[in-house]
Amino acid sequence: MTEARCPRCGGPLGGRPARTRLTTDRDVWICTPCGTDEAVREATGQTPVPFGDWPLSS
User: How far apart are CA 47 and CA 58, in angstroms?
Assistant: First the structure.
């Protein structure tokens, strides 16, 4: 069995994944560190990492 991977960073999805803030329906799961990074970027007015820059986006 293969471990689920985070589409944003390529690392393991882990036991407590988050939902990305980039989609309105938030149906894409990402790892906790990436979820934290998205929340911090949003709170500080930084632009999000676009889907096209995610290693597993294609």
Answer: 21
Q: Which residues contact 20 (CB under 8 A, 6 or more apart)?
A: 8, 26, 28, 29, 30, 34, 35, 38
Residue listed under structure tokens 């999805």: 13
The total of other beta-carbon atoms located within 10 Å of residue 46's CB is 11
This prediction's pTM? 0.81
Contacts of 48 (CB under 8 A, 6+ apart): 21, 22, 38, 41, 42
Structure tokens at 30: 């990402």
Q: What is the pLDDT of residues 5-57, one digit of tens each?
A: 999 999 999 888 988 877 766 688 999 999 999 999 999 999 988 888 888 76
